[in-house]
Amino acid sequence: PNQVIQAANGIQAAKRAASPFIVRLSAGAVQGMPGALPRVSAQHAEIDEMLKASGLSYNILRPHFFMQNTMMAAQTVASEGAVYMPIKDGNIGMIDARDILDVAVKVLTENGHEGKTYTLTGPASISFHEVAAALSKAVGKRVTYVDVPLETAREGMKGMGMSEWMSDAMTEYFRAFSEGYGDNTSPDVEKVTGKPAR
Question: Which pTM does this prediction carry?
Answer without folding.
Answer: 0.91
